[in-house]
Amino acid sequence: MFKNNKLSVSVQLAIALGASSAAFMSSTAVAQDAGADKVERIEVTGSRIKRTDLENAQPVLMISAEDIARSGLTSVGDVLKEISTNGASLGLQTNNGNTNGVVRVDLRNCGANRSLVLVNGRRWVTDVTGAVDLSTIPLAAIKQMEVLKDGASSIYGTDAICGVVNIITSTDFDGAEVSTQQSTYDEGDGKRETYTMTVGSSGEKTSVMLSATYTKQEEVMGGDREISSVPIFGLPANVSSAGGRASPTTPYGQFTATKDGVRGSYTLDQTKTGCLPNQVCNNLADFKLYNGNTDGYNFAPVNYLLQPNETRSLYLQASHALTDSTTFKTEMLYNKRTSEAQLAAQPMGGAPMAISANNVYNPFKENITGASFRPTNAARSYAASNTTWRFGSSLEGDFEALDRTFNWDVGATFSDNELVQIKNGFFNSSRVTTALGPSFIDANGVARCGTLASPITANGCTPLNLFGGPNGITQDMLNYITVSPRNVEQSTMHDYTANIGTDLFELPAGMVSAVVGAEVRREKGFTSPDPLTVAGQVLNDNAAVPTRGGYSLKEYYGETIIPLLSDAPLAHSLELSLSTRLSEYSNFGNTTNSSYKLSYRPIEELLIRASYGEGFRAPSISELYQGQNDSRPAATDPCSINSTSYISNADVRARCAAAGVSPTFVQKDPQFRARIGGNENVKPEEAITKVVGFVYSPHFVENLGISVDWFNIEIENFIGTRTAQSIANGCYVTGLQSYCNQITRDFTGNMNGNPGEISDLLALTQNFVGGLEREGVDINVDYRFNTEVGTFRANWDTAIMLYEGDLGQPERGELNADGDISNGNLVGITLAGASGGGSRTKMKSNLTLSWNLDEWSASVTAQYLGKQTEDCRGIITAANGLNQPQLRNLCSNPDATRTEYAFKPGTTEVVATPNSPYATNELKATVYIDAQAGWVAPWNTQFTVGIRNLFDKEPPLAFAAFANTYEPAYRIPGRVMYLGASHKF
Prior knowledge:
By secondary structure, the protein is mainly β. About 10% of the residues lie in helices and about 45% in strands. The protein is built from 13 helices and 47 strands. This is Iron complex outermembrane receptor protein. Keywords: Cell outer membrane, Membrane, Receptor, Signal, TonB box, Transmembrane, Transmembrane beta strand, Transport. InterPro entries: Beta-barrel_TonB, Beta-barrel_TonB_sf, Plug_dom, Plug_dom_sf, TonB-dep_rcpt-like.
């Protein structure tokens, strides 16, 4: 047990300050010499000044290698996904919307590019979006992770607005260790295997460590879990209209044509044969009018719920003491990741889908425009290969001068990240047009392109049969039209740093310490889409143009710690920390950011801390230089006669009519065709971060630490784009002409045979004055105690979000700083249709109890995700459209209402409409229980066995989630069982 002296309190406070979230409980964060009350100087995340203790550190979450092993997780991204401060972030559980297979961390739900990721205190390479792919960082070499729960732009520069993740590798590994872990879901899928080998030597002057890791993650299919096997769980799987989410683009086709004098959209009756390959088709009787309630395509089963992934990494780290006071360090990393996203077969539709009346397979014998078809025997996939190289070297040491010791370091880092994406199951627009043109049957009974007088034989042209259902497509047809676009993305970073620090002079309360430094960094990147993609020749795929750009910067910074009081009445200590950073960017100019931190201990056991920090985020390469690319966001057209806005608002109906939309128009495509792109005039985001809290470590309960911190983050000039839904609503619901100017409609029907569909919606990057604001409270309780039956540790870590929304915290219905109507506080309200997940839980909490006795260990962890509510009006629309009122009860509150707000036409006056129907659904609070046991054998082999989601807790149904009813912030249904072994030599 610790003694009740200043060192004891320091250590206990360090534990409390660094205590991790439930599954990740940190070890003591200070180094103590055996048998002596001495603590060495160390540098902690959030400060460059080396200290003799952690008593005045900012809120830092520490996750040790032992904590990671206890979690049963084997990747950096999976570990960070479950900490209480992480929000909705991309990972392998995101399929559509994450076709590159990246893994992110999103502290405070601010966005992944507002969370800075460091390795050993140095920046990790980002992609062109400005965010780090955590899958490029190997887990095996990690000694601990430190998550700073505060802004730190004055210390680290751009991106450190909502927090910092600093991953620290082992420096004193001696010997060799091999380990493996095997895991699988109880459904028999999602198998994950990990193998690591680490060798090292640590001597008096030289240390070397080499770590190699191989990881393979197998897929989980959407169809293998009930919650993701249909577009909306609880609705018929094939409803493509009336609020359903099945696709209207089906393997039985849709064709705007005339049959028996009736003009309409026809499809092949699924009980009929239709048209056969290499035969002139006259089977018009096999076709019927398309019914959106029964004929939609259920795309969900063939999507991945968990992407397959394979990673190989090699990490080398070495240090050598050149002299007693100078050390050379170097590191090298190679990481290769391959992954695959899989979606339903590529839909074929749009203007190129014009079918000639003289096509041998066309039973309607008329020219058809606006046809659509989905060849389900041609899988659509995105195979990603990501290669990361990183090289770094530094010199560090100390010297004596002017009667004081100076600590210094200089370093250089080079990082390169290249992503190659091969897209399979896509089609060449020009060849599709040719294959759907005139065709004939030759003397050998084989269908040929062109006419008998002018046959087309180039590239093996084969007429395309869209009228025979899934079996009407042959391999020869696919071979002619299929393309595999290859896209390349690369980012590089050169980073050079220099720092020097010392104790300047002594005040009555202690020494004044300071560090000054400089950093020079160059970043550049590009995306190179396939030439066919650039030319818009990949049918129904998002067209894209290359992105290329970069910038350089010089930064100068300083930090000082000033002790103001010590051992005074009601002031055991009082300390002020100041830091500032000047950043000179080549593309937008200069920015200066400072921070001020106060640490006050009225008594030895209680630390009260407060900080005020200025922050910034420079625009990323894509935000500045991305060419205009196509996007397909899910959205509801307010002019569709079955939309809630159209039904309930006469002003909407009038505006849609004025725009030329038919009063019988029903939206056919559930996704808008939008264009996004960069903007070289975008300016940096500016942020203010405030933190106030305390840490209490009482003498009367040894090894107990309690910390509570309130935080507030305000981000001005937020960089982003307006959502497609907000632009459409701004035009037709709110009546703003500036939004209407960004919308183009197809009144010809060439796009998909449905005149009036939105064919182009422009949403370019911009600064938003209104910005973002986050406010909340972090709580951590950590307690260790010894008994005759072992050592126990309990840790409870909780993040409570109090506000998430527009800057200034306007109430719902008030105007924000951009002149838009605010949605108010969004905490606890799930963002609808977010492909990367829209979870906004008010509380995320973890509780762990661990036990150790000699060679035995065990732990139990509870992860709590608070309840959320979501918009459930789509279910009401479906129930009404299907004439099945009982489906309304899928919503937990189908009769809910709320006040709706809109601008009075032609003015900025906000008009309130009370008691508007607004059905909601509650995603109930969810608790996952994990358990693990371990044993160290006499021959120095450690075995671990564990079960994640011990009680098989199902995620709540999320009807507003993207593509199915599963919100990826929750765990995939099923238990994960794992077995691990490691042996040290």
